[in-house]
């Protein structure tokens, strides 16, 4: 007989303050996953999902590091439960990566000539006016923009 899943997760203090926003972002994520992607390229279908994942991580990052409105216990809980991307937040704390959109953009193995994504190039150094990242649809996430 299969095990019955129960919700026995102990939520730390302050969870009730951030829960509505995280639930709303989860609902948006489900909607983005179920949206039809007829007429879009394969990579374009994933752009809304990357965007919502970025919003969730940025929301928790700002609450903990910039506004200091949540405790470390709640911050660690959110990371462990998968509400935010630990590796992306670690990059945001480093200089030059404050506006990084996703980790795909800085991985050289995912790009031609073992470089980074075009969205990491500052706007004043770009040759084209409008650029969209192939991986996440970002229009520019370098810290110099």
UniProtKB/TrEMBL annotation:
It is found in: Nucleus. The lineage of its organism: Eukaryota, Viridiplantae, Streptophyta, Embryophyta, Tracheophyta. Belongs to the BUD31 (G10) family. It comes from the Eukaryota. This is G10 protein. Pfam families: BUD31. Keywords: Nucleus.
